[in-house]
Amino acid sequence: MANTAMPDVKLAPSPNPFRVAQQQLDEAAELLELDTAIHQLLRWPLRELHVTLPVRMDDGRTKIFHGFRVQYNDARGPTKGGIRFHAVHNAAQEHKVHNRLAAYLVAVSRVAEAVKLRGWVG
User: Which phi and psi angles does 121 have, rounded to 5°?
Assistant: First the structure.
């Protein structure tokens, strides 16, 4: 009988999405010659909330759920998003990236709106 065992396959670890986003920001900040203080302010979340929620299930077992909320920058108004509950820690890293991008999107759209209102572009 032929050996049908699968060979050991070593998969490269998937990149941490938060670290990838930070690296992209670092590269953009260097190209823009962004002020160091502003760069550091944009690099890290303003606040993070991590919670642990024990829930008694219907079968009597207690299951632990982990939740998190990441807020990047509230300088231009309220932050977006809500509390997320997910079983995988990597989701927290992805949530940080999502909130960073959402903060950038809101900021850029507000600046674009102000530029149009002032008649600086058509």
Answer: -135, 160
